[in-house]
Amino acid sequence: QVQLVESGGGLVQAGGSLRLSCAASGRTFSSYAMGWFRQAPGKEREFVSAIGWSGGNINYADSVKGRFTISRGSAKNTVYLQMNSLTPDDTAVYYCASHPVYSGRDASRYDYWGQGTQVTVSS
Questions:
Q1: Cα gap 22→36, rounded to integer Å
Q2: Cross-strand partners of 117
Q3: Could you list the pLDDT tens digit for every one of the 123 residues in the chain?
């Protein structure tokens, strides 16, 4: 069993930055892949980024590539999403998800989800 808790969301102006964190716990978390998804008002949940259980196999959505960076803490109990050059289009609830090995773009493959953290970017 894996438990996930997101934090770090908030309100920022366009062009600003935020760093989201996903704190995880569980017997096998150190070997779990992690993904970030987001859902904006009136839109479907979409893939943002993911990282493999070993810290490799990193994937980004085209809309965030070059602006967002996913990483794992050295202890493997926390995953970060550094978000730079934010725009109002990035406004959404951001969710952390995990799977023992999968780190792709398909949300339905992930087994565990956090409660989400709100990110709001003003013009």
A1: 9
A2: 94
A3: 789 999 999 999 999 999 999 998 876 656 789 999 999 999 999 999 999 988 889 999 999 999 999 998 877 678 999 999 999 999 999 999 999 889 999 999 999 999 999 999 999
SS (H, E, C) the chain: CEEEEEECCEEEECCCCEEEEEEEEECCHHHCEEEEEEECCCCCCEEEEEECCCCCCCEECCCCECCEEEEECCCCCEEEEEECCCCHHHCEEEEEEEECCCCCCCHHHCCEECCCEEEEEEC
Q: Is 22 left (phi over 0), alpha (psi -120 to 50) or beta?
A: beta
Tokens found for residue 100: 């023992």
